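User: Teach me something about this protein's shape.
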Amino acid sequence: MELREILADWRDYDDAAFRLGIFLGVFPRDQKFNAVKSMFWMDGYPLGDMLVDFLDRMAQTGVLLKDEEDERYKWNPEPPDLS
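Assistant: First, the predicted structure itself:
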């Protein structure tokens, strides 16, 4: 499955970061979110911060959309031409 499919709908920041981690192979495909969710909620947890930062950078380039108010992300259905 492609990342555009995984993030096709709005996802809270922690869920989006978790799914990105699975996509990148950081977490095994059968990893349960409840077992690792605290890494996204603790300030300064390196792995959680890195995955959320990656989402933020993707939003800055226009690949993702970010809802600042609700802290959620989704794939931009009309991403910019990055070529």
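Now, about its shape. The beta strands are 11-12, 64-67, 72-75. The longest helix spans residues 46-61. If you'd like, I can walk through any region in more detail.
User: That's plenty for now, thanks!
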